[in-house]
Description:
This protein is of the alpha+beta class and 133 residues long. It has 5 helices and 3 strands. The protein has a domain at 3-95: Double Stranded RNA Binding Domain (2-Layer Sandwich). The longest helix has 21 residues, at 108-128. The model has no long low-confidence stretch (mean pLDDT 89). This is Alternative ribosome rescue aminoacyl-tRNA hydrolase ArfB.
Amino acid sequence: MNINSILQELDYKAVRSSGAGGQNVNKVSSKVVLSFNLTASNALTDEEKTLASVRLASKLTNEGVLILQCDEDRSQLRNKDILTKRFLAVMENALKEDKPRKPTKIPRSVIKKRIESKRRQAEKKQSRRRPDF
């Protein structure tokens, strides 16, 4: 994943934030919307595109565009920085390979403990039976 080439493919758009905020919210576009076309990206290889599209399937549109938005701050520039960091974290997480799972061996002490408890339970049941003369 080449970060510089991916950052060049990002599209930012500033829009007005929703919700309460007085007169300022009606005239200042501080909310930032980021869109990244995953399917048309030249920065990612085909394997990375398929892996990211599978892992980000719930966040992608039908056209394969990832859309993120941020209106946490009153500053458009800070929202853009937050959004860029969030996007890089999302992409890094989507492209991270999972470690193969190593099956663990059951410890000898656990096996011994289980067999011992079964033996004790069997002796308890045996002692409750009627004596066989």
